[in-house]
Amino acid sequence: MNKPAKHILVCGSMRIKGEPMGTCCRKGSLDLLQYLEMEIADRGLSDVTVSGTGCLKLCDKGPVMVVYPEGHWYSEVNEEAADEILEALSEGKAVEKYLIK
Q1: C-alpha neighbours within 13 Å on the C-beta side of residue 25
Q2: Which pLDDT score is estimated for 23?
Q3: Ramachandran bin of 49, using left for φ above 0, alpha for ψ from -120 to 50, beta for the remaining angles
Q4: Which CATH class name applies to 6-98?
Q5: Domain residues of the chain, as ranges?
Q6: 10 bridge partner residues
Q7: Which range has the worst mean pLDDT, 1-15, 26-40, 57-71?
Q8: What stretches of the chain show up as alpha helix (H) in DSSP?
Q9: What global pTM score does this model have?
Q10: CA dist 91 to 72, 85, 95, Å?
Q11: Beta bridge partners of 6
Q12: For 21-52, what is each residue's pLDDT tens digit?
């Protein structure tokens, strides 16, 4: 596998003891992680990878998703938002309405 051009991080709400404690997992971030994996494959975005993370400490904005190297932080991401973000990502843009500022 080559180094991906883009890396999507999805908050998994894991805390130090390894238990999902935050809001993101209760709002479906783990399902979102699976959805993103499938969508990335279906769209042929071979230069994009996705990973789950520990708590990103923005629980009131969850589920939270981050896209690197751009450093775009997105809030309240669901499948519809993920579709818009992936579409914008392939065009080299951000989706302003979900950006955390």
Answers
A1: 15
A2: 85
A3: beta
A4: alpha beta
A5: 6-98
A6: 52, 65
A7: 1-15
A8: 23-26, 29-42, 79-90
A9: 0.90
A10: 14, 10, 11
A11: 48
A12: 678 988 999 999 999 999 999 999 999 999 99
